[in-house]
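FIELD: query
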Amino acid sequence: MNQFVLQQGCSRELQMFPHIIEFGVKKNISIQLDSLPDTTVDNIRIYYIMDGKFEWNIHERQYILYPGDIAFILPNERFGGTKGFLEIGTLSWIHINAQKPENGKMQFGNWSRLSENETQMIGKILLLNKSVVLERLSEASRIFVSLQSELFNHEIGYHTRVNQLLDELLIIITRRLTRQTNSGRDFSKNFLQLEQKLREDLSHQWTVEEMAATVGMGTTLFNERVKSYSGFSPLNYLINIRISEAIKLLKKPDLNVTDIALDTGFYSSQHFSTTFKKLTGYTPSEFRKKNIS
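FIELD: result
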């Protein structure tokens, strides 16, 4: 790659892409003091190391990056050189505008062609892992090269192709995260975190995909781990949590059964009653009478 820096508002190559704040390639041949101070970023930043060794602080952790590594930094996270400057070496980067994460969700913008479900899954996995460094993500090199080609050459369909490449970059980063993060992670800890998350929002209609994203896994691996750990499928595991929470609430005589049903994630009082009796042998009303009287 040739050296360049494209900036929104200054470079015509980015006029059609308001979501790309900056895109560049730099071969740093000398050390300049204070060239990479520690700051809080306000957009998504993705750096790909082409040559050299870089020591960075990302999200209050120190990392050493080598050729082929990629750093992914979320809005509101801190980033800077461990020594306050950019080391000698070559890197490519792209800064993408994104809404600041709110309520555990991230929005990438109208440019993305990811489905709503895919956006939620990817956003949750990225937010769960915070800012990260991925080792030897060679696929990223091809995407950065292709982005440069599309932005400078303006061939037919380049607008669509640039956005597709950005989506692809997010996808490969997330896929690697789910593999890298969970290869050696203690699932029992994840399992407890998942249960806590589910209990905090039982009224939400959780899907297997959402639950898997919460612990940074793909659905296949997640199904296997939950089945192995609990003996239940993810959805049956979730139903058991709903029922256990409903049992606690039914012991409070001032709470309405229908409200309990909805608060614990059942579609209706009838659905709640049927499921409750199947698992406990009592209807909710029978259980309440037996345990309160």
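FIELD: remark
The radius of gyration is 24 Å.
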